[in-house]
Amino acid sequence: ALFTQSGGNVTLSNTGANENYGNFDLESGRQLILSSSTLNNTGTFNLNGAVISGTGTLVNSGGGTIAGRGTISSNFNNDGGVLLVENGTTNVTKAFSNSGLIQLTSATANLTGGAITNTGSIEGRGNVGNNIANSGIIEAIGGTLTLGGTVNNNTGGLMTASTGNKLLVTKGM
Hints:
Elements: E1 2-4, E2 10-12, E3 19-20, E4 23-25, E5 31-34, E6 38-41, E7 44-46, E8 51-53, E9 57-61, E10 65-67, E11 70-72, E12 75-79, E13 82-85, E14 88-92, E15 96-98, E16 101-113, E17 116-118, E18 121-128, E19 132-134, E20 137-147, E21 151-153, E22 158-161, E23 166-169
Parallel strand pairs: 1-4, 2-5, 3-6, 4-7, 5-8, 6-9, 7-10, 8-11, 9-12, 10-13, 11-14, 12-15, 13-16, 14-16, 15-17, 16-18, 17-19, 18-20, 19-21, 20-22, 20-23
């Protein structure tokens, strides 16, 4: 299935189960508004410079991918899915939990916004500006991974960079 947003904002306001198993292509400069609704993603969301907003919750479950530049200002939980941060900025404005994978794919990949409670994995190269409470894995792969927020590496947390890679923690731990 494919949903392509075109020409306006889209509001999801029902109270039943809302699932995405296919492809959801948002339109640059537009909004997907989750009005008190929860949307469970096990497909692919292409942010394309759009905004996911509202009082509802976007849950990125196992098998789900959210990719590209854009903003998530609704409640958000990366519950086993992949948050793919490519060239440009992905802004998740509220604090969120990550039990899946946050993958940064280039030196110009930039994740910003609310604090991250990480029990999954944050990996790649680029910049994470969020504060992080880490009980999972943070790993530099393919170059320098810069952590621009405050990092608390809790019991069980692992921060690593293999030969040829660098993990740069600018505000300390």
